[in-house]
Amino acid sequence: MEPPAATRRSARPQSVLFLCSQNVVRSVMAAALARHLFGKSLYVGSAGVNAGEHDPFVDTVMEEIGLDVRKHRAKTLDDLEEYEGLGFDLAVSLAPDAHHKALELTRTNALDVEYWPTSDPTLEAGNREQRLEAYRRVRDELEQRIRARFKGG
């Protein structure tokens, strides 16, 4: 007999998929942070609803904390399904369109879904430093949420 959904969600999953709109900013940061913080004890993937273009601001703010994401190549959910499958315990959606897609996945995949509304730093206007500060805020918020959600286990 399967445990109640609330029990499953409180337990630390073995694998997590971070989903965003384009898999170039928020989901890239989240996946890199989770891999860094939890190593091989947590299988981590990331994907986007749509294909996106590389964002050098992500490289900059992740390098500030010692993480190199320059080799990341954006993947859509279709790419992920085709090459890796969707054998994840948990999908964490970071944007409204990604959350909608994640809920659709539950129709054909046994996974839990959590929605972490996360601001889009690409929408920040201003000079380079102001824009970088928006990316840093998102990075730091994601790190706090990831530490809190996946600690233990």
Automatic annotation (TrEMBL):
Gene3D superfamilies: 3.40.50.2300. Keywords: Arsenical resistance. InterPro entries: Ptyr_pPase (IPR023485), Ptyr_pPase_sf (IPR036196). GO terms for biological process: response to arsenic-containing substance. Residues 14-152 form the Phosphotyrosine protein phosphatase I domain. It comes from the Bacteria. This is Low molecular weight phosphatase family protein.
